[in-house]
Amino acid sequence: MQAAVADLLDRADAANDGVLPIVQAGAPVLRTPAARYVGQLGDLLPRLVDAMRRTMHAAPGVGLAAPQVGIGLAVAVVEDAGAAADDDPRERAALPFRVLLNPSYEPLDEPGGGSERAAFFEGCLSVSGWSAVVARHRRVRLRAEDLSGAAVDEVLVGWPARIVQHETDHLAGELYLDHAQVRSLTSNENLVRYWAASTDPSDAARVLRFPLA
After folding, report:
1. 3-state class of 6 per DSSP?
2. Among 145, 154, 167, 174, the one annotated catalytic
3. Mind listing the pLDDT tens digit for each residue in 172-186?
4. How confident is the model at residue 109 (pLDDT cuts 50, 70, 90)?
5. SS3 category, 85
6. Could you give the number of structural domains in the chain?
C-alpha cells in the first residue's frame, strides 16, 4: 500500500499542485469499510494528510475521508471556519483543523434528557453537484486518534457534529444519501435557486413533501 499511496501523491504533486482527484459515487472504495489504521503508511501519513487538507480546501469542503481519494484506510481530515451568522439554525461553529484516525461517534442525550436529531441540507464531494436533507444527531461524542496517535475524546454539537458523522460514515462505506430524505434530493443549482434564502429546510420539506424527522 505504501508504494501505491506514494505514487498517488507523486502524481498529484506533478500534475495538480498536490491536489488529489476525488473519487465519485459508484467507485467500490466508497462502499467498502475502510481498514483500521495501524501504521500501514509509516512516514507517508503526514504527507497524505497534507495532501488531503489541500484537496479539501481546493474543493472546497469541510471534511475529507481517505476513501474519497481512493485509499481504503480509516483516516479523515475536518476543518470549518464556521458561519458568520450567530442565529444560523445549523449551529455552524468553527471546527479547527484536525486529523482523525479510526474515528467513531456515539449520540449523546441532550442536557434536559433525550436525544435530538436535526435535519438540514447536506452535500458531499464524492456526490458532486447534489444535495439532500439528512437528519443527524445534534450532539455526539467523538473518539479517535490524532496524527501523533494520541487519543481524541470530545463532545461536538450542531454542524461540527454533523461533519464528524458524515466523514466517519464514509469510513464505514456509507454515503450521506444512505441517510437522506430521497424526495429532498436537489441539484446544487436548484438548491441555490429555490432554497438558499434560509438554511432551515422547512419550506423545502413542505413544497417537496418530505418529512424532517
Report:
1. helix
2. 167
3. 999 999 999 999 999
4. confident
5. coil
6. 1
Residue 124 is labelled as binding a ligand: yes
Residue 186 in any domain: the answer is no
Nearest CA to 175 among 131, 127, 135? 127
Sign of CA dihedral 179, 159, 125, 129: positive
Establish whether 167 is a catalytic residue: yes
Structural element, H or E, at residue 7: helix 2-16
Burial classification of residue 74, based on how many CB atoms lie within 10 Å of its CB (0-12 exposed, 13-18 middle, 19 or more buried): buried
The band of 113, judged by pLDDT with boundaries at 50, 70 and 90, is low
C-alpha cell at 71: 485509499
| In a domain? residue 91 | yes
Dist. CA 148–CA 17, nearest whole Å: 26
pLDDT at 164 over 90: yes
pLDDT at 111: 75
Is 129 part of any domain?
A: no
Which residues constitute the domain of residue 46? 2-118+142-173
Residue 64 lies in a domain: yes
Could you tell me the CATH number of the domain that includes residue 156? 3.90.45.10
57 is in an annotated binding site: no
Residue 74: which of 98, 46, 38, 47 has the closest Cα? 38
